[in-house]
Amino acid sequence: MIEIKRFVFNAFGVNGFVLYDGSGECLLVDTACVGDSEKSALNDFMVQHHLKPAMLVNTHLHIDHVLANNCLCRKYNIGYYAHRDGLQLLSTATQFGVMFGIEIEPVISPAGFLQQGDIVRFGNSELRVVYTPGHAAGSICLISDVDRFVITGDVLFRNSIGRTDLPTGDLELLRRSIFEELFTLPDDYTVLPGHGPDTSIGYEKINNPFL
After folding, report:
1. Backbone dihedral region of 196: left (phi > 0), alpha (psi from -120 to 50 degrees) or beta?
2. CB of 89 within 8 A of CB of 60?
3. pLDDT, tens digit, 9 for 90 and up, residues 107-161
4. 99 band by pLDDT with thresholds 50, 70 and 90
5. CA triplet 194, 150, 164: central angle to 5 degrees?
6. CB contact at 8 A, 139 and 86
7. What is the DSSP letter of 158?
8. Whose CA is closest to 97, among 87, 108, 88, 107?
9. Mapping DSSP to helix (H, G, I), strand (E, B) and coil, where does residue 102 land?
């Protein structure tokens, strides 16, 4: 069984997740911690639970989700993984940081790439990757069919969807990603979004005003 620890990181309120099982190995997802207190909170949790990160996965490469990539990869001697189509966003991360008053060094390149149908493994657990562009090129979601949850990044939120007014955003493409890749999941799957509270596939099918 996968255990999930959620953190809310940085001024953008990004949900960062530590996924772990009984193996002692864990997976970091969008753990964009900034400042000493956020970095310490993440590290203290892993120390207390005797966890060793296997890798870092980004659901997409917008600046608010990659702020800690360099730091975490160096600290834990791991690589990060994302979809290749999101690379174009890395080249503008520093400029976007300036717009929001955030200084960020150029983000290192991914250790590898994830695409539709890939399996992310850590410890005794696995997640499958679905490609869900529309909010941003390179957006992916991570699904556990055993534990019945999906990490959606900024694709699907409770009562909302990802914004599409940023570069590479496309509303119709986002809606198609949701209907074809997420709304085909069973209703009881928990949705763990990149911002805000959890929801479920069934709830969003009925209540999401954008869908």
Report:
1. left
2. yes
3. 999 999 999 999 999 999 999 999 999 999 999 999 999 999 999 999 999 999 9
4. low
5. 45
6. yes
7. T
8. 107
9. coil
Q: Which residue, chain included where needed, has tokens 């008053």?
A: 101
Task: Assign 140 to helix, strand or coil.
Answer: strand
Give 156's strand partners. Answer: 161
User: What is the spatial distance between Cα 118 and Cα 142, in angstroms, rounded to a whole number?
Assistant: 10
Containing 129, the helix (H) or strand (E) segment is strand 125-131
The amino acid sitting at 117 is G
Hey, what are 200's tokens? 């479920």
Q: What is the CATH number of the domain that holds 198?
A: 3.60.15.10
Average confidence (pLDDT) over 191-200: 98
**Domain limits for position 40:** 3-207
* Among candidate residues 118, 211, 96, the one with its CA nearest the CA of residue 157: 211
